[in-house]
Fold each of these.
Amino acid sequence: MSGGTRYLAATALFALLAAGASTLVPESWRPGWWLALGMTLLLQAPLGWRLVASLGTDGFLVIWVAGILLRLVAVAITGLVVVPMVGWSAAPVLLALVGFLAVSLAIEGVVSAIQSSRVEG
């Protein structure tokens, strides 16, 4: 299995688990939960896939830095524009978004480590 395929499979599993966990959060938090999950998947799936595909290339660091900056911008725009615009409480949305992005980064790291060990070994 390629690193990109492994990454997308792990991301799909995470999405299913997060969707299932939505039943455990208070009902008033659910719209923010779903927004955060959707944003994470739309942003992280292509970024993570591209990063894993760039392992061992000269472009790896550029892709990694661009991904970190895009994630920070997404959190800022969500907190400063989206949440006030829809009138939701910021804490549930931002906690879910930052949590989902952190889990996605962990997936990225694990898949990259596995892929690296396969390339070198």
Amino acid sequence: MATYVLVHGAYQGGWIWKPVAQRLRAAGHEVYAPTLEGCAERHEQVRVGITVGTHAHEVARLLFYEDLKDVVLVGTSSGGMVICRVAELAEDRIARLVFVDALALLPAERVADIVSRPNANVVTEMTTAPTRADAEGRIRTAVNLRMAEPDVVAHLPVVHWEGLQTFASLGQDGRCTADMWF
């Protein structure tokens, strides 16, 4: 059986994974769904200086102190950025990265680049999302960057999760980049 660590996004807590965690546990898997500092039921701990990096260190410490190995590390929303950084900090403990409707930056991209894109979003009753042209452009950019980067030496296993396909690469410097997702 596998060990899963499920990382929530901003303004959420580990509880968002409850239905997923229940199913995984029922199938015999070990599941951790921590609530990160300053979030949800830990909102009293909010302080200046909490970042994606501090959240990543918190998850990496969980992996270390619980002695977790061959972990399937799952992130949603801004948790995607957290798991990328965790992959850099604890590469030897992670078997797979899974991005579920997650924010995973391209090389040299910043959060501000995404939230201030000039491309119009598609807005529906339930959500707002990048246009198809924007998403396809990001995928092409990712593929081109991947082809141009000879230092990419290891691919984490391809993960399929109800239509989501993610390729996460670790370069020689150990940095995580999400090559493609759709």
Amino acid sequence: MKDLLTSALDAHGGLSRWREIEAFPIMRLLNIESSPRGSKSASIAVTNAFLEAYRQACPGVMVDTLNVWEEKLPDFDQEAIGAKYKGVNKEPMDQGETAVWDKIQELAVRFQQADRIVLGVPMWNFAYP
């Protein structure tokens, strides 16, 4: 594929631009797995096939997988909402709010650092869960 793309770019005077793109740092891809079925999941199998093909086309890609069933996600409850508002407004927080806000920030950074996001979403009864 790279030879085909390089030939097409060269034919249109864009080969130097392609070489500039190759010099960029590693692309970050956030892969979100949302099926509770693990190795039996069709959506995870499809996503993994896509990621394998993508890695072949873009060998410099770095994949960060966030499995929503394995990740310790904070409950989005009254405490989390209060922590969010205090965090955004830079107000003092108690220990519980600080822990929730730190986890929210940690998860947000993974999205912010991603150049691309892949959502592996299962289909149950022909609809999304």
Amino acid sequence: MDSHPNEQLIGEFLGNANVFVSALSGIMEQRLLADIAGKRLTLSQLKVLKLLDVTGAGNIGDVAAFLGVSDAAASKTAERLVRGNYLRRTQARADRRSSELSLAPSSRKLLRRYEAARNRKLGEAFAGTGAAELRQTAAFLERLTKAIVTHSGNGEEVCLQCGIYLQKRCLVHDVKRAECSFQQRAARRNRNGTGTGGTVPRRFRLGASV
């Protein structure tokens, strides 16, 4: 297969994109979380708290689909969060054999503090960037994400965690016209009336906008 004429530039772009993500999560977000929660929470656990903040409640399968891990790994994560008093675990109303996970009140306060601190830091980092440049860059990154999903045979088998980052839609559904792994679980739960017994929040519904 012939190489792309801009192969070197593409490599440099992807390198910078990976370094940006490393700086964002590995340096800024990790330090902010440590300042607020000490070493009791990881970024992966924080994502679970964000998920349940948006959805209101969920179960182990939801967490597994969202993080892209096994039910066993998700169960261990949830157990640590329950023991740390970040999550509450109750018997599911629709199925007494399963449990329902929801945020503890202290977790909502922690999330608000974290988001406020994160927004302040990002405001400082993006101080020299104009609105037009931000919109153009965001649109460019979304277009590239959709292109990657388009050329991936199993894009619908993963969850890109759009719901805690984008407040508009599921990009996998936009491209594939199919549900991502998290949406598939949510749709089955709503059809069967199992799990949390509620509906998927508008922000997580396919094609929804806010």
